[in-house]
Amino acid sequence: MRDHRFRTLLAQNAAFVLLWLAMLLALAPVLFIILTMLVKGLPGLSWSFLTSHEAGMLPSIVGTVLLVLLTGLITTPLGVAAAIYLSEYARPGPVSRLIRLAILNLAGVPSVVYGLFGLALFVTWLHMGRSLLAGACTLALLVLPLIISASEEALRQLPRGLREGSLALGATRLQTIRRVVLPNALPGILTGLILALGRAAGETAPILFTAAFFSLTDPFPSKLTDPIMALPYQIYVMATEIPNLPPEQKWAGALVLLVVTLGLNLGAIVIRARLRKKTRW
Amino acid sequence: MSTDIVHSEASISSGNIHLPEGPICLETRHLSMFYSSTQALFDISVSLPANQITALIGPSGCGKSSFLRCFNRMNDLIEDSRVEGQVLLDDVDINTPHTDVVELRRKVGMVFQAPNPFPMSIFDNIAYGPRLQGIRSASRLEEIVESSLRAAALWEEVKAKLHDSALALSGGQQQRMCIARALAVEPEVLLMDEPCSALDPTATFHIEELMLELKKRYTIVIVTHNMYQASRVSSHTGFFMLGELVEFDRTEVIFESPTDRRTDDYIRGRFG
Amino acid sequence: MKLLKAAREAIIERLIQVSGFLAVLFVILILAFLLRDALPVLKTVSLGAMLGGDRWSPSAEPPKLGLLPMLLGSLYVTFGALILAVPLGLACAVFLSEVAPPALREILKPVVELLAAVPSVIFGFLGLLLVGPWLQEVLGLPIGQFAALGSLILAFMALPTIVSVSEDALRAVPQAFRHNSLALGATEWQTIARVTFPAARSGLLAAVLLGMGRAIGETMTVLMVTGNAPVIPRGLEAFVRPVRTMTATIASEMGEVAAGSAHYHALFMIGLLLLLITLAVNLAAAAIVRRTGVVRK
Ligand SMILES: Nc1ncnc2c1ncn2[C@@H]1O[C@H](COP(=O)(O)OP(=O)(O)OP(=O)(O)O)[C@@H](O)[C@H]1O
Ligand SMILES: [Mg+2]
Hints:
- The complex is a heterotrimer.
- Chain A is mainly α.
- Chain A has a single domain (about 45-280), classed as MetI-like (MetI-like fold, Orthogonal Bundle).
- Chain A has helices at about 1-40, 45-50, 60-90, 95-110, 110-125, 130-155, 160-170, 175-200, 205-210, 230-240, 245-280.
- In chain A, helix 3 (about 60-90) runs antiparallel to helix 8, helix 3 (about 60-90) crosses helix 10 and helix 8 runs antiparallel to helix 11 (about 245-280).
- Chain A is globular and about 65 Å long.
- Chain A starts with a helix and ends with a helix.
- By secondary structure, chain B is of the alpha/beta class.
- Chain B is built from 11 helices and 10 strands.
- In chain B, helix 7 packs parallel to helix 8 (about 200-215).
- Chain B is globular and about 55 Å long.
- The model of chain B is unreliable at about 1-20 (pLDDT under 50).
- By secondary structure, chain C is an all-alpha fold.
- Chain C has a single domain, classed as Orthogonal Bundle (MetI-like fold).
- Chain C has 13 helices and 2 strands, in the order H-H-H-E-E-H-H-H-H-H-H-H-H-H-H.
- The two termini of chain C are about 45 Å apart.
- Chains in contact: A-B, A-C.
- The interface between A and B is medium-sized, with 23 and 26 residues.
- The complex binds adenosine-5'-triphosphate and magnesium ion.
- Adenosine-5'-triphosphate binds next to helix 2 of chain B.
- Magnesium ion binds next to helix 2 of chain B.
């Protein structure tokens, strides 16, 4: 009897040790990635490397910023409107279930398939060519499900009394949405938007055949229909196609991309944490 | 028991209800209400007097809130809810396809059980309704905010911090602010659904004082679980049970010599 | 004036409603456009010849468009990733939901989720420049780009999905189950192993499926680290040889191909297959989640 008791406790301890190890193993790559990138990337990083457009990152930084801004511009109104529909208008039932299913599936479509779709629809069919515009449209689609989900969650977290209070004062549904619902959901929506833009900034496959190019002579776009250089694409090219580039430049480039994407994510996390503390209903 | 119900229904339509003196403000005729398949209100015909406080009492779940929300059609917001019969506001049926619900809700203000200030400044909360109606002038808005807050007996306490967040007020202050917010759109009727249930006795006292003051200008309907409150502030009282309006009369009558045995049982605390 | 306002509101509300259906519209559009550019390849080869064909050499005359190398390549890399990621991910989820003190959990969960924020090209970069060469040396391999390297990195990329969804599933198990088991004298571990974990199993399955969807669709990493040799993988030793996945084929060849050629359409066919596979995986996960009512964020 006592022997049995001893063995079950032993099993528990062994299992818990394994669980701890698993957790540590899962954390390892985060630390590994960040530390390695810092150690290897920092030496090659310099002001001139960031701001020069012959051997530097400036064209890709500019390209990525433009791409991300345009993506946000396209996707935000669509995503927020869709979220408003789902949380404020749609009745629960087969229709809203269908929409949710579509969103879930959209979120699961591989990024390279988005690239193909962007090539077929935006680049070819709509004659945008390989361009900033086509790339932004493709990325806008890719992050749309993220924006919708985040916005809907932000809207749903608002207390019901807020809407009732406004309607009871003689506000229309739309006035209620515009004046009390949206302003109060805004921080949550913003968090989702930043996360989505972080994702857009790091994606390579969707812009591979819709927007990105590599040029030393004419790296800056002058109009929406020009192709652009972009950080993730430049990292890819530096890693795979330019073997005699000094390695510290490759690492420094990758570090820039990592800082941009993780920076956006950390920003969103911080905003969210602030929000949790600040709002009390 | 079931014979009792038949009896009381008959007695209500045959004269248990004393038509209130003065202009009739709110009236229902054969009002029934449904939440999808379950019926919440059964054939209610009653007139609520203008410029008076009418109290609605009854055990939990008997349909008081549902009844109250018929008067500003807040029930519209609930999926699959449905109303039969008529609800009249100054002799006008408010359940027609032509009714402007937004206009209706402006005329019939509502204060909820839990204070629900918008997360904005006190000033913006009160100015919310007037702004919806297109009032932009800063001086006009200031006037409205001040007079509404005065009417809700809150002005002195908050005049120095009008632009602070309304969420920083105490519960009782928040509820009075919600009353002020409702008054700012100049309604004719004020519906109050257990407005004091989240408040301490002092705050409750303030609100009751306020109601007595407000009835000079508004018709007030209040749902309450507090029988003392009903007897203190109201001129008329309706007793609900299981979705029926069992008895409606002057408050003294209801509390001193009710006609229906169920009313008697309830006010003597013989129900659970 | 008032009428005008009402009309304007009606228009805006209609726009909102239309936006609500955008997601459905886009799913349909994606399918339609992929079909449109994929189907013409069937004029050159039959679907059977594609799916069963073991040679991919699109510039040959006539082009050889067998997809077997890529299908199996994706299968190898994905299953390799799942073999690593599923036990690790489930263990982490159990740790976070059942063992870790809440304060620790609040810190660790975002850290794991941070993995999902690292761009795939960075994973590929590290694999290609650092981990691959290192493993090559340690294991004495002929080349530093091989299937198992892809699996290893993909495992960590799929980890956040698996951990996050399984943790939700575990936390959705009613507290009463645990309390009852503990009250019967079970240890915490026995409670986890015999009550909590089994009770959450359908949510856990959904987590694995979603992780799998993530792994199949991943492109840049595998493109950079698996060597891209379009040969049919055979046996266990294929894990230490170069392979090529469906995603990598599209990414590496779409750039050079002439629009309208059989090769172009064949690449779209691969994309279509990829889309159908991920749709099926996601629908299956959604069905499981819906049937058992596990709420997913
Ligand atoms: N949104 C709803 N959907 C379905 N049924 C509802 C809904 N709201 C109320 N009901 C039902 O209608 C009946 C009356 O509810 P109502 O809220 O009007 O009661 P009440 O008298 O206000 O109770 P309380 O004193 O607890 O506030 C109850 O049986 C309740 O379950
Ligand atoms: Mg109620």
